[in-house]
Amino acid sequence: MSAARAAAQIVPVRRLLWVLAALLGLLALSAGSALLKLGVWNPIINFAVSVTKTLLVMAVFMHETEARQLTRLVSALGFIWLAMLIGLSLADFLTRSPLPAPW
Asked: How does DSSP assign 18-85, residue by residue?
């Protein structure tokens, strides 16, 4: 490994502390939104917070911003695959009709 590549992977502590503060703030936001009655907005807000936390962790701790193109492609395909699985599960759940109990 070259010296330039090794130096590029060192993350300053100040940046890590900002990321920690952001993750703790997002954690407080998702915990606080669970206590509020927001109706249909609760899952939407919590999903947006979850995606934000995931992207923050990927960008900083997994070094996706400095990664090779192949690594970025694999990460993007992982997100697409997860979106497909969630979409198919949601489509299955929303198209089912409620059946009465047989007894």
From this structure: HHHHHHHHHHHHHHHHHHS--TTHHHHHHHHHHHHHHHHHHHHTS-GGGS-HHHHHHHHHHHHHHHHH
The residue written with tokens 């890590």 in the block is 16
Contact 21/1 with Cβ under 8 angstroms? no
Quote the pTM value: 0.67
What residues contact residue 75 under an 8 Å CB cut-off, 6+ apart? 58, 62, 64, 67
pLDDT tens-digit map of 23-66: 999 999 999 998 989 888 898 899 899 989 988 998 888 887 77
Q: What is the dihedral of CA 67, 68, 69, 73, to 10 degrees?
A: -60
